Amino acid sequence: MVRRVLAITLIPVAAIALAACSSGPGGSATSAAPCAATPSGSASDAVTVNGDFGTPVTVELEGDLDPASTERSVPIEGSGEPAQPGQTVNVYYSVFRGSTGEKIESGLDLSAEPTPFVLDETVFISGLVKTLGCSTPDSRVVGVIPPDEAFGDMSAQLGLEEGEALIFVADVVSVEDTPEQTPEPVPSVDLPQPGAWTDNIPTVDLAASPPVVTIPDAAPPAELVLTVLEEGDGDVVPNGANVTVDYQGTSWDSKQVFDQSFDAQPATFPTSGVIKGFAAGIVGQQVGSTVLVSIPPALAYGEDPAAHELGGQTLVFLITIHGYE
Question: How far is CA 138 from CA 64, 90, 170, 274, in A?
Fold first, then answer.
């Protein structure tokens, strides 16, 4: 699963935050019928995009954007065969708040390469698929997506207000058939072993909904440390598993929660696809356990604040392990 909500915070891979809640295999185009492109409207026409094709862009808005359904405008027309359902569209993308035009996420912040999106609503949010459907290479498309075709009740985790739309801007580099995918085993990774947490342990209220972690006014641990708050009685999570967890991430520096799933739904991801300190807090623990792990910058997002918004910070994760496969 591109959620800033998951993707950027835990899985530093472009476009995870824009994923749907379920996943499915890709496939080639399912229809050669003429494309029925999502129409434009007053909301999408009110968005002006500034910036050259394939470069970082900004947006300017004229009025409030409150579409009843996804609207799609094409400020730069491309050429070639339009993208059909099931195909993969490779794009440079950016996501903005529909109320202010503030950037939420950009693929170019994560990779110099275009990001692939499969036109499949079981893989990505429906508003994104509606925006990219029927797009042609060398085109720029703008989608204004209402919450019910984006993240719904999870919108608050992206910092969006209730009812606030998303603006999705994509410069389409190419369109191609999606190869059939055979699941591969998740690789194991070399993980550090957390030490025991003995000093300056945050207080945790597991009875609250969502749970509340209170960081003490003290220096954070210098090393990776972990304490088991509730021990489960299930199997031990192996290295290389796909795990399902609830989690809450708090910055020791700011004392603020920056991401969580406790107020939405559990998240599933491979232990090889998250920051090492987070994976180390899960691998070796029993299913059903709730743990608290403190992760120094070197095992999170590095020491450089300019490289990532959480760079240079010690992160504290509360994690409940529901299962693995």
Answer: 29, 11, 10, 33
Domain range enclosing 147: 4-176
pLDDT-wise least confident of 102-111, 132-141, 165-174: 102-111
The verdict on 159 and 199 lying in the same domain is: no
- Out of 147, 176, 205, pick the residue that ends a domain: 176
Phi and psi based region of residue 141 (left: phi greater than 0; alpha: psi -120 to 50; beta: remaining): beta
pLDDT for 64 equals 80
Same domain, residue pair 255 and 152? no
Shared-domain flag, residues 244 and 147: no
Cα separation values, 41 from 45, 108, 143, 163, 168, Å? 6, 27, 10, 18, 15
Concatenated DSSP letters of 260-308: ESTTS--EEEEGGGS-HHHHHTTTTPBTT-EEEEEE-GGGTT-S-TTTS
* Domain identity same for 96 and 10: yes
Least confident of 47-51, 107-111, 169-173, 215-219: 107-111
Is 147 a domain residue?
yes
Contacts of 194 (CB under 8 A, 6+ apart): 224, 225, 226, 277, 280, 281, 293
Residues 60, 26 share a domain: yes
| Peptide bond connecting 210 to the previous residue in cis, omega within 30 degrees of 0 | yes
Residue 205 clears pLDDT 60, i.e. is over it: yes
Q: Is the same domain home to 213 and 162?
A: no
CB count within 10 Å of CB 268 equals 18
Q: In total, how many domains does the chain have? A: 2
Phi, psi of 88 (to 5 degrees): -105, 130
Find the CATH number of the domain harbouring 233. Answer: 3.10.50.40
- The beta strand positions in the chain, using DSSP E, are 47-50, 58-61, 71-76, 88-97, 103-106, 115-118, 140-145, 166-176, 195-196, 203-205, 212-214, 225-230, 242-251, 257-260, 267-270, 290-295, 315-324
- 89 within domain boundaries: yes
